[in-house]
Amino acid sequence: MESQVEEIKKKLDIVDVINRMLPLKKRGRHYVANCPFHQEKTPSFTVSPEMQIFKCFGCGKGGDVFTFYEEFNHVDFREALEELAKIAGIKLKNSFDEGQNKNKKRILEINNEVAKFYHYMLVKHPLGAVAKKYVMDRGISDETIKLFGIGYSPEQVSLIANYLKKKGFFDSELIMTGTFGNSSYSNRLYDRFMGRLVFPLVDFRGQILGFSGRVLPGANPAVVGQKAKYINSPETEIYHKSQMVFGLNLAKEAIRQDSTVIVVEGEFDMISPYQAGIKNVVAVKGTAFTEEQLQLLRRYAETLVLALDADFAGNHAAIRSIELAEKLDFDIKVVDLLGKFKDPDEAVRDNPEWFKKRVEEAISIWDFIINSAVNTFGLENNKGKKEILNMALPFISRIKSEVIRSDYLHRLATIIGSDVESVKKEMERKISNFQFPISNREMIKTILVEKEPERDKRDEAEERLMTLIMGAKNKLKVAKRVDADLKFATIKWQKIMDLILANRIDWEMPLENVTEELKDIFGSTFLMAESESMESFHRKKEIDKIVAKLKSIDLKKQIADSAQRVAKFEREDNVEELNKAESENIAALLQLSKWQKLQK
């Protein structure tokens, strides 16, 4: 495996690979971007074409092309290996196609066959004629049907299951996809989506993870059951509803170019605008976003434009979704349909140009909330004003910026004819009393940044010292001066120090003679060193302080150890060893005094 990994690395340029997913800008010898792994205003994400590594100096993430692909796409090493092999044009050995990912591969294989079958039934088979007419009547063209792979599952219990079994798939494999269930009455497989229009759920990499099915008007209740109008695939090894963003595979480049994503609720709400030329649009299920969905969208966009059903402002889950988006530093706007249409699909079908204009004139989420509250409850009496506050304040209280929050509290106070202090007190009261429905807890959980354990202080100091050494003009000279006083306690730093002292580093190609185990840490430290500009005098001063700090740490430990030995030899009445231990203790104390002065 290692030889093929290295072969892929040699064929690929990390700059080209990352630039496909994240726009990079050249800065000196390196490339930079805003980090996709944490929110920042100033780029601290750096890519080195010479060392073929990346490093974010804001959140600390770094590594090679495989690390980036895994982290950015939320895939494991094996999936990254397969995808990067495709990009590099390298055929992996057969052994790579076997093992723990066998089930995932089989599910994807079956899903592709199922999607083809459904699509064929819709566009070419007589059993799909009614469904095809329904789609065409909604203004969806043949080209769009093909692009989105829209299909139809006929009202026949085992038609597709039998077809797939003839192609060599087993019952257990079909059940594994979530598309099929096993009837307890007839002991045979049935299609969960029978009698429904079907939309393949495709991830941003173009893989079909599952399906969404919509009941057609006049469908036989005995076939489709009494379930909701829309149903999705259940959770499987590859499909997770909380991570699914419909249409992102098609829209991501337009979203990246505009740095804006328009979010709608259902498949048709996404498909109709996309067909009308609004390409930066995606769909989520309902008004509640999950953390995973928002983080995925944040990779491509800074502005989140909501084009949801008109009643979402009164939805508790929407409040938390907006809070999540706020924490990710989205600029949140809303497309106001002005009560003329119930959803984007209807608006686009009636007047696409009008909808495009509404998108262009999208207003701030906070203005929309206040406007919706006023339009819903009116200002004629105190009851209406109270309801306006009930609807608007839970949103306004979640504005991160104190300045913007204060501005909207003033606006709200002016609208209802009250003073701002009274409105502020009402907001504080509502914050303490506000409860979210238990059923929504999972879906709307607040983003929690899981803090890593605090790094060892000595390791931090040694990393900083190594960064300063690598950034010096005469690295060998500085390294020798440090080495005369100090040995690194952390093995990785001492190994790197040994390479520098042995003059084995070609600083034009710094990773050339570095062992594999040290490449990541060496490369990221070197990148950090190169990103800093520091006068020699200030560099020497900081190095001296760190060396003094580390020497003081060592000496304090030495003093504690010798004190224990003094006590031991006193108990044993061992005069000779006691005198040695006391002499060592005094010498260490004198040394400590010297190094502590140098820290100041």
TrEMBL record:
> Record's superkingdom?
Bacteria
Q: Which residues form a coiled coil?
A: none
Task: Outline the residue ranges of the record's CHC2-type zinc fingers.
Answer: 35-59
GO biological process terms held by the UniProt record: DNA replication, synthesis of primer
Name any cofactors this protein relies on: Zn(2+)
Query: Quaternary structure?
Result: Monomer. Interacts with DnaB.
Know the name of this protein?
DNA primase
Q: Which organism is it from?
A: Candidatus Shapirobacteria bacterium CG_4_8_14_3_um_filter_35_11
